[in-house]
Design brief:
121 residues, 68% helix
């Protein structure tokens, strides 16, 4: 048998195994759409998937601007984000949710002037 043909058969089997999961996801999405469209709950509580998609497309620029810092914080880590927040808000003590020490730039600001508030991330 040809190696290429075997590869196609294997990828076809993988695709068939994914079909039940895909069908369930589409069924849940359709149920959500129908439930939201029938007016059981307001758009402010549970917007329909089509409304979420249309608003996402309409605000794609803002979404992209906020996605980049989120991905950066995820990849670089909360320690680096704490340092940046400490520089951006010098009068605020920034503590990570892990209970670590405040960022170095925040420590400097604590020595020069008393902090007004504390921001946890």
């Amino acid at each position: 048998m040809d190696v290429h043909l075997i590869s196609i058969r294997r990828s076809g089997r993988r695709a068939l195994r994914a079909l039940p999961s895909l069908a369930i996801a589409l069924l849940l999405l359709a149920a959500w759409q129908i439930y939201a469209d029938t007016g059981h709950v307001g758009d402010d509580v549970l917007p329909s998937p089509s409304r979420v998609a249309s608003q996402g497309w309409a605000n794609r620029h803002d979404l992209w601007e906020n996605t980049l810092p989120t991905l950066r914080a995820t990849v670089v880590g909360s320690g680096r984000t704490s340092e940046e927040l400490g520089r951006a808000f010098p009068q605020t003590v920034v503590r990570s949710s892990g209970g670590g020490a405040p960022a170095a730039s925040s420590r400097v600001s604590m020595q020069t002037r008393p902090p007004r508030s504390s921001q946890a991330i």
